[in-house]
Amino acid sequence: xxxxxxxxxxxxxxxxxxxxxxxxxxxxxxxxxxxxxxxxxxxxxxxxxxxxxxxxxxxxxxxxxxxxxxxxxxxxxxxxxxxxxxxxxxxxxxxxxxxxxxxxxxxxxxxxxxxxxxxxxxxxxxxxxxxxxxxxxxxxxxxxxxxxxxxxxxxxxxxxxxxxxxxxxxxxxxxxxxxxxxxxxxxxxxxxxxxxx
Length: 197
Fold this sequence. Notes:
Number of strands: 5
CATH architecture: 2-Layer Sandwich
Mean pLDDT: 92
Oligomer: single chain
Largest sheet: 5 strands, mixed
Strand order of the largest sheet: 1-2-5-4-3
């Protein structure tokens, strides 16, 4: 593996972070508040990339990373309210500086586990010496409540490593439903608050 291979992902991550900062600040200037609680970005570790390729039946090569791993760059945007998720998604998908490749609305269609979030796969242009290359990145947009559940789910999966007991899976699905109810209640409260502004 060429040592310079991941440099382009670092460049694309910086480009994406800058674009997202600008979009969020422009939203704040226009609306007088920022919906974003916090934002984190990362480059996937080599061991995680290797495991992902292995699970999909591919060997660890530059070509397979480029073809089959769209989340080497990952950004998580955590917002206050359910409506904020869709505001941020709209901001990103209307940006002229990144290209939308794919979207997955796990809020409207939760995963079997109960996981909810909004995922975007985007292409980020990086301007090299003589050409432009488009690097994929995954952006996850979720509420604080969704982020809490996802964090707990991740810890449980790490703890069991193999098969998660059915009793635990059932409880997690029930908690996911509770989280969804809480998000809807918080959305309703936000609508009430907006009447007084």
